Amino acid sequence: MPEHRGGGRPSRGSRTSRPTAADPARRAAWEVLKSVRADDAYANLVLPAVVVHFSLSARDAAFTTELASGTLRWRGLYDAVLAACVDRSLSRVDAPVLDALRLGTHQLLAMRVPTHAAISTTVDLVRAVGGGRGGGRADAAAGFANAVLRKVAARDRDAWVAQVAPPAERDLFKHAEVAWSHPAWVVDELAKALGTAAAGDELAALLAADNVPPAVTLVARPGRAERDELPGTPTTYSPFGVVLDGGRPASVPAVAEGRAAVQDEGSQLVALALAAADVEGDDRLWVDLCAGPGGKTSLLAALAAGRDARVLAVERAHHRAGLVRSALGADPAGSWGVVTADGTRPPLRPGTVDRLLVDAPCTGLGALRRRPEARWRRRPDDLLDLVLLQRALLGRALDLVRPGGVVLYATCSPVLAETSGVVGSAVESRRDTELLDVAGLLASRYGVTDCAGPLPGTAQLWPHRHGTDAMFLALLRRTA
């Protein structure tokens, strides 16, 4: 875990204390939380720009990343702790001040930051961002932060969990909401996806895995790069991946040149499974129906190029279609194309596609390791609209593939409504569709075990079992 020397000076919480500049690394982390809260931004996308804006060193950038991401992961616990230390509802605490208090709490309970440094630098941060234009308000906010954080510092993390989390035996989901910092409805959905055979220990293992920052995984695009030229440890399943040993991915020559990229091993397996599936007849046109931002498309394009096949990427959002083009890079041979179009109404003739990927928009609850804010952003009400879209996309995909062609439906979510619910409905409602054994394919081709999905033949990857995002895969064939 990154260490930090502190910065600023110890604060006495005095109303006449002289304002001091906030430590840049902590101010940068606060800016990330502000963007997530006010702009619905994703922390992993905001962080690089914030690091550049504040001209942070590599050491301070690592500190900022852990501080911002860790605070977002553990917000459920930290809000419960702060609620026990504040003499008012947290909803009555100014949002900028509350963000700073969460950052201070993470430093006190989860980072190797001395207590005096965690408190004093957070007080300086509150004085900088939470006082408005009035000096008196700034001093009052700083004094408030100082008093609250001293109460937080009076107990360690385990003691706070014991005090503020409801007992698990009384309400497992409410306990997990605080102790593991997952909303209760998310815990409920994850427990259902694990199945009744999964005891509380496996649920706890999954929630714990969600709170561990993922290692950076790279993929060497076949035909353009070799795995041996990437620095890192070979991935367990993908023959093209490595887990980066350290440093910035952009400093790797193959990444800088677009011959390799950052990509979770689970996402690599989605593209590999589609490419490895048996098709009957021609194998020339591959389509990615929800292509943005282009990671899976790029791996598919590299695999297709070795078979004289062409990849067409379809992406509804114009700016994301641009990201797909950037990810694919130069293509003098014309082996791929990108169109900006709605995946439910793409400019393609039915029955003309050989392989098709539906990487469907979803709740993203399988990627909480890398996008921790998603657990607080999503609501149960989101499921209905997403499921309707997922069904429409899968139905259109099955219309587009020719008899003998295949569709791989994938979500970065294990939620049953988005996985077995969508796929089961398609299979039951169509007489021209059969479900293939993608779990067996992953086992035989790539050594992936213990990945049986909720429907026979489907596959479900898990962070606590496979070290990947919780990707769901279903492989379907269009029959005559």
TrEMBL record:
In this protein, the active site sits at 412
Provide the protein name: Transcription antitermination factor NusB
Highest taxon listed in the record's lineage: Bacteria
RNA-binding among keywords: yes
Q: Which UniProt keywords apply?
A: Methyltransferase, RNA-binding, S-adenosyl-L-methionine, Transferase
Pfam families for the chain: Methyltr_RsmB-F, NusB
Q: Which residues form the SAM-dependent MTase RsmB/NOP-type domain?
A: 192-479
Secretion signal span: none
State the residue spans of region: Disordered.
1-24
Organism of provenance: Nocardioides marinquilinus
Q: Which InterPro entries match?
A: MeTrfase_RsmB-F_NOP2_cat, MeTrfase_RsmB-F_NOP2_dom, NusB-like_sf, NusB_RsmB_TIM44, RCMT, RsmB/NOL1/NOP2-like_CS, SAM-dependent_MTases_sf
Residues at which S-adenosyl-L-methionine binds: 290-296, 315, 342, 359
UniProt lists the family membership as follows: Belongs to the class I-like SAM-binding methyltransferase superfamily. RsmB/NOP family.
